[in-house]
Design brief:
The complex is a heterotrimer of chains A (448), B (400) and C (335).
Chain A (H helix, E strand, L loop, with lengths): L7 H20 L16 E8 L6 H18 L25 E8 L4 H13 L5 E4 L3 H14 L2 E4 L16 E3 L4 H16 L4 E7 L2 H16 L3 E8 L7 H8 L5 E5 L2 H13 L6 E2 L2 E2 L1 E6 L2 H7 L7 E4 L8 H14 L5 H20 L4 H8 L3 E2 L7 E3 L6 E2 L2 E6 L10 E7 L1 H4 L21
Parallel strand pairs in A: 1-2, 1-3, 3-4, 4-5, 6-7, 6-8, 8-11, 11-12
Antiparallel strand pairs in A: 9-10, 12-16, 13-14, 14-15, 16-17
Helix pairs in contact in A: 2-11, 3-4, 5-6, 8-9, 11-12
Chain B lengths: L5 H15 L1 H4 L17 H24 L7 H17 L4 H23 L4 H20 L3 H4 L5 E2 L22 E2 L2 E2 L3 E6 L2 E6 H22 L1 H11 L1 H6 L4 H26 L2 E2 L6 H14 L6 H14 L6 H7 L5 H11 L7 H15 L4 H16 L14
Antiparallel strand pairs in B: 1-6, 2-3, 4-5
Helix pairs in contact in B: 1-8, 3-8, 3-11, 3-12, 3-13, 4-5, 4-11, 5-6, 5-11, 8-9, 8-11, 9-11, 12-13
Chain C lengths: L1 H31 L6 H19 L2 E10 L5 E7 H16 L1 H23 L9 H23 L15 E5 L2 E4 H23 L1 H11 L1 H6 L4 H23 L9 H16 L4 H18 L2 H6 L3 H16 L13
Antiparallel strand pairs in C: 1-2, 3-4
Helix pairs in contact in C: 1-6, 1-9, 1-10, 1-11, 2-4, 2-5, 2-9, 2-10, 4-9, 6-7, 6-9, 7-9, 10-11, 10-13, 11-13
The chains are: A alpha/beta (448), B mainly alpha (400), C mainly alpha (335).
């Protein structure tokens, strides 16, 4: 073994090099100028669109991205302006945000909290994004929201339905326009009562993770309050693809309603399996057996095909709404891409405009000023009727749609029909509601 | 020096220089240029490079030396992350106790799994480790949510006790991970002309840890213990006949690589205090296998290169979108621009997985020894043209 | 009692999917000695063969109907499949309705071709390489195939419904109904498994292949071109996976990552069955399917929370610890 004996000089040199390496971060103190993280100094401002581009929600992610691109176009004065024309706040004039042209970067969340945070970090650290938005699952939304709070940028949540996002995991820098599981339940319960009566026995199949549990809890509470009985609740693994062994026991459980607390691929498969087992044509307790899917999305409904017909659920928004805001949005989206937008696209588009509007009203990009401008903000003309961004938990309160799979669709997009628009008042809950307890907004963090 | 041979010392010095100068090396393009998209010199990604490097170095001690292919190493990474975050929640935001705990817990966990799995060899061993890891993932995602916070991932909150620290800072924020007061996210920018370089405390901590890990791995490779591990790979039966029991050696290698994984997991949590269950999924275990093979299994530096390559694609290629492509090819005539963009958009943005798959196939088909072999071939070419000494510069010589 | 019976059916049904995929995987492994991580992708491609056929059959002639408006207020398009125009409404719609069974005929040549190209073009070069290299190259291939499918068909699941006549439920025992298509799937997989075994057992070709599996070199020395036969076996294995995918479509709508979902499971099945054993793979497939079904019953979950999440892996660990080479593994294969 020949040992390498370095000369004294060599040791000194390499030692100094390593020493300098260690000391480097302390030599330069503090960081560059700026009152808050990524303060835009040039004539552009960068937004970060963090959506799932791979994994099971890639199609939703693609639709979200289309909506973001459209929003940026409208903010910069391109296209027909979309909802800028119907939005109740009129400060946005198509010259970007505070006169700065809007640019954007995109990233892939892969629907994994880790990857989503890595992607958001790169937007903040490398691209200088001042606001992060997007996502198609609650786990990711909560994870990225936490990151944005730490880094000192605003997070405008995309599609996230769990109570926790604005409940126990709420953050001062995070805002959610989308509705949540509690609202779904509150909107659905009266409709279910009208349609199926108040004497029903419900069997729940629930995705075995946080979102599934909060939704099951909400739906069970709301339906039990109107007289239904919850016969059973069975938790199903997220990775499950064949639900036959969960559906079969429903047949002779004495239940006459099946509630599928599933989303995405889980929902498509469990619903398909339930229909295969003939549940739709079954009579139990002298009543027609019914299936309920509390959270619907049109993209997913398309995946479920024929099976969706007649199934009741709730949704945040649907393109067939006839108010001016929805019509304007559907028109510009449809003209640009050739098909109507999904609810994910809608919420992402609206969130971008709301952020731009808040900055403009606050006359500052500082996250704390933006938070102040968004808290308690009331607006209209964005497709959901009069809406309030509540200050206590940064949740939007607006009308919720109860929808049903259409029996005779006229096109491949025309899959859902609106059964009822449940007014915002009916789905509003106190900020200290037990299902949302345990969280703390903290204070807004401008970073830097 | 350091008890290393000249060749290994040179390698260590090169790696040390590369990691210390990484903020410069990874940011070769001016910030405002179109090519800045390819810059990887921002703290989060640099941290990931070295952390996954540690993970792969550790994995290579098991796989590269003994040939035992574990398909469940992500479980140890995940366990390390969870331990570290729990330390942040209960004790303090100092990273040292967190790292120590994550290494210990991952070591214990890997001892348990290794003890059982090493009763079998070959693919039976692989499937046993896979089964344990998948069980850990499934339970962490669902039943163990009180400990792991399931889908969302374990995060620190404002009302954690943190008995040696504070639950919240004076202005009502969650405190930041630090090492004796030096915050992990503290960073400073150095602006030279159009270039901008970021130096962050977190990165340099990770880099130092990786250098130590790398040094230890060299020592293990060159030690009698490492020799014994290679003997296990080449012929276990013969080893048995010479009166040696291979099991304690393999178990030791398994636990060491589990501790490396735990260390990597702990560091991930130190840089970004969140531990998600997906870190334990089989895809994550598969990723480290791919990193090691892609770089060159059994070589010292290969796994680090493989880790860097995969993370680079995941974080840089996935962020190139159609608009970026159009801006690059603006100067071309429209039909050409659109054609080029149409071809390229298959491979970037949402198509980054495709590029990765193609690269896996190309590398393994044409460079049987992984990226390291590519480096060697270039090196040989270089040497031939320069007609210089041939063996000494082969810093990346495989172990076998 | 009915509940238990139903779970046995469910288990057999899941088991038949596992068994079919594992069978092909073992065939490739046994004949070529290659660890094929792209096998799940072959299953997925099979399913997308039937999606493609469905798309081809419903290729439509578009006419504008000015009386109806689409969502933008333009005249809406009425689509009439060419096949309906050519064969008339009845025959045309029946053909479209039966597209999944028809896809079997469509998929066999495609899968054979894909198998052939894969083996000759890529796998061939990896026979002498370490298993690690085989894993990397086939995993890379799996990613590429999956991304291509995603690019052309999107990430959402696409329904490939069973023919109307088979989409309802079926009375299998007095008082017990079960989805008709699942019964079809079970019978279909039994037929395929039986066919593969008969082929290997009773034909000369099969005999040579079995001999080659046992001792490749000796068979080669006897002057038999074993490589050519193994190429064909790869094609057969690919077709088995593909057909499993075609027929699986009506049970669960195909999506681009269904292969990856099955990949890990099918490896567990093969190893639990024992490396190099075809009957072992089939047996393990059915066994794990049935155990998985029972573990998802409410009574069992209440007893042991979370057992449905881990049952397959738990069983795999127990079996591998009790029986070192799985259920029916041969000595010395990949140990």
């Amino acid at each position: 073994m020949s040992k390498n004996n370095l000369t004294r000089r060599g040791v000194l040199k390499s030692g100094a090099g390593i020493g300098a390496g260690v000391a480097l971060p302390t030599i330069f103190t503090a960081s560059s100028a700026g009152a808050f993280t990524n303060e835009p100094t040039g004539n552009t401002v960068t937004l970060g669109f963090n959506v799932p581009q791979s994994g099971p929600y890639a199609d939703e992610g693609a639709d979200e991205l289309r909506a973001y691109e459209l929003a940026v176009e409208h903010l910069n004065g391109g296209g027909d302006g979309g909802m800028l024309n119907t939005f109740s706040s009129k400060v946005l004039d198509g010259t970007g945000i505070l006169g700065k042209k809007v640019e954007y970067v995109t990233g892939d969340t892969q629907t994994k909290s880790d990857a989503a945070r890595a992607s958001a970090q790169s937007m903040i650290q490398k691209d200088g994004a001042i606001m992060i938005t997007g996502g198609s699952s609650s786990g990711v939304a909560v994870a990225v929201q936490g990151l944005c709070q730490e880094a000192g940028v605003i997070f405008m949540a995309g599609l996230t339905h769990s109570n926790d996002t604005t409940g126990k995991d709420k953050k001062a820098n995070g805002f959610r326009h989308f509705f949540n599981a509690y609202m779904s339940a509150a909107a659905l319960a009266p409709v279910l009562k009208n349609l199926y009566g108040d004497d029903r026995k419900a069997y729940h199949l629930t995705a075995d993770y946080t979102w599934g549990w909060t939704q099951q809890e909400s739906i069970a509470a709301a339906t039990e309050a109107m007289g239904w009985e919850t016969v059973n609740n069975v938790l199903t693994p997220l990775a499950q693809t064949d639900f036959s062994s969960y559906i079969a026991p429903v047949l002779d459980s004495g239940a006459d309603v099946l509630v599928l607390n599933h989303y995405g691929g889980n929902m498509v498969n469990s619903l398909t399996n339930a229909v295969q087992f003939g549940l739709r044509n079954k009579q139990v307790n002298g009543k027609n057996f019914e299936i309920v899917v509390p959270l619907f999305s049109r993209l997913m409904a398309r995946g479920a095909g024929e099976n969706i017909k007649g199934i009741v659920g709730s949704t945040n928004w649907h393109w067939s709404l006839q108010d001016e805001g929805s019509k304007a949005f559907v028109k510009s989206f449809g003209t640009k891409y050739g098909f109507p937008p999904s609810q994910a696209a809608h919420t992402c588009y609206v969130q971008t405009l709301l952020y731009a509007d808040a900055v403009t009203r606050a006359k500052s990009f500082n996250p704390c000023d933006v938070v102040a401008a968004l808290e308690g903000f009331e607006f209209d003309g964005m497709g959901n009727g009069p809406t309030l961004y509540r200050a206590e938990d940064h949740q939007c309160f607006k009308d919720v749609l109860v929808v049903k799979g259409k029996e005779n669709p006229t096109s491949e997009f025309d899959l859902l029909e609106v059964v009822e628009v449940t007014p915002a008042a009916q789905v509003t809950y106190p900020a200290d509601h037990p299902m949302f307890a345990g969280g703390n907004l903290g204070t807004c963090n401008p970073g830097a | 020096m350091f008890g290393l041979e000249k060749k290994d010392l040179n390698l260590l010095i090169i790696v040390a220089l590369l990691t210390m100068l990484a903020p410069f090396i990874l940011n070769p393009f001016p910030t405002d240029s179109a090519l800045a998209q390819f810059n990887a010199g921002y703290p989060d990604l640099m941290q990931r490079f070295v952390i996954y490097g540690i993970f792969a170095i550790g994995f290579n001690i098991l796989f590269g030396l003994t040939g035992y292919l574990s398909f469940g190493h992500a479980a140890f990474l995940g366990v390390g992350s969870y331990s570290a975050v729990w330390m942040f929640k209960l004790l303090s935001m100092n990273v040292l106790p967190a790292l120590v705990l994550s290494v210990i817990i991952a070591g214990a966990f890997s001892w348990l799994i290794g003890f059982i799995s090493l009763r079998r060899t070959g693919i039976y061993f692989s499937i046993l480790t896979l089964a344990f890891a998948q069980m850990s993932f499934a339970l962490a995602y669902s039943v163990l949510t009180p400990i792991t916070n399931g889908e969302t991932g374990l995060q620190i909150t404002l009302d954690d006790p943190r008995i040696l620290g504070m639950s919240a800072t004076a202005d009502g924020s969650i405190p930041v991970t630090n090492i004796f007061g030096l915050e992990m996210r503290a960073a400073t920018d150095l602006v030279i002309g159009p270039w901008s370089f970021t130096f962050s405390v977190g990165y340099y901590l990770c880099a130092l840890v990786m250098l130590v890990a790398f040094y230890l791995s060299i020592r293990i490779f060159r030690s009698p213990f490492g020799m014994m591990l290679r003997a296990i790979k080449s012929n276990q039966t013969r080893m048995n006949y010479t009166g040696l029991n291979p099991k304690p050696y393999t178990l030791a290698a398994f636990v060491i690589s589990g501790m490396y994984a735990g260390l990597a997991g702990g560091l991930l949590a130190c840089m970004d205090p969140l531990a998600g269950a997906e870190r334990m999924q089989w895809t994550a275990s598969g990723e480290v296998v791919l990193m090691t093979i892609l770089g060159g299994a059994g070589t010292l530096i290969g796994p680090v290169l493989g880790a860097g390559m995969i993370k680079y694609f995941e974080n840089i290629f996935s962020k190139i979108n159609e608009a970026t492509l159009h801006s690059w090819f603006d100067v071309l005539p429209d039909p050409m621009e659109n054609g080029l963009v149409w071809v390229l958009e298959h491979f970037v943005g949402a198509g980054w997985h495709l590029t990765l798959g193609v690269i896996f196939m190309l590398v393994v088909t044409f460079l049987p020894g992984g990226l390291v072999e590519g480096g060697q071939r270039i090196g040989r070419l270089f040497n031939r043209t320069k007609a210089a000494k041939d063996d000494e510069s082969a810093a990346t010589k495989p172990a076998e | 009692m009915d509940a238990i019976l139903l779970q046995i059916f469910n288990g057999l049904d899941k088991g038949s999917a596992y068994a079919l995929i594992a069978l092909g995987l073992t065939l490739i492994f046994g004949t070529l000695g290659v660890v094929n991580f792209a096998h799940g992708a072959l299953f997925m491609i099979g399913a997308f063969c039937s999606v493609t056929l469905q798309r081809l059959l419903t290729l439509s002639h578009e006419t504008l109907d000015p009386t109806k408006l689409d969502f933008l207020g333009n005249p809406s398009k009425i689509k009439t499949p060419y096949i309906v125009e050519w064969f008339g409404a009845d025959a045309g719609n029946t053909i479209i309705d039966w597209s999944v069974p028809l896809a079997i005929l469509f998929a066999i040549p495609i899968m054979l071709a894909i198998g052939y190209v894969m083996e000759r073009g890529l796998i061939k070069h990896f026979y002498k390489r370490p298993h690690a290299d085989q894993i990397l190259v086939t995993f890379g291939l799996a990613i590429v195939l999956q991304e291509l499918v995603k690019h052309y068909y999107g990430a959402n699941p696409i329904q490939t419904p069973a023919p109307d006549a088979l989409s309802g439920v079926m009375q299998i025992l007095p008082g017990v109904v079960y989805p008709a298509w699942r019964v079809v799937y079970f019978c279909f997989s039994l037929a395929i498994i039986g066919g593969v075994f008969a082929f290997l057992q009773f034909t000369t070709f099969g005999m040579v292949v079995r001999a080659g599996m046992a001792d490749r070199e000796t068979v080669g020395l006897l002057g038999i071109d074993i490589d050519r036969r193994f190429t064909l076996m790869f094609g057969i294995a690919a077709s088995v996976a593909g057909l499993a995918g075609v027929m699986y479509g009506p049970i669960n709508a195909p999506n681009y990552h269904m292969g990856m979902d099955f990949l890990v499971l099918s490896f567990v099945v093969v190893v639990v069955g024992g490396m190099g054993s075809l009957p072992g793979a089939v047996l393990a497939g059915f066994l794990l399917g049935i155990l998985e079904s029972f573990a998802s019953m409410r009574e069992i979950i209440t007893l042991i929370p979370g057992i449905n999440q881990i049952i397959i892996y738990l069983v795999a660990i127990v079996i591998l610890l009790v029986r070192p080479r799985g259920l029916m593994g041969r000595k010395g294969v990949m140990e």
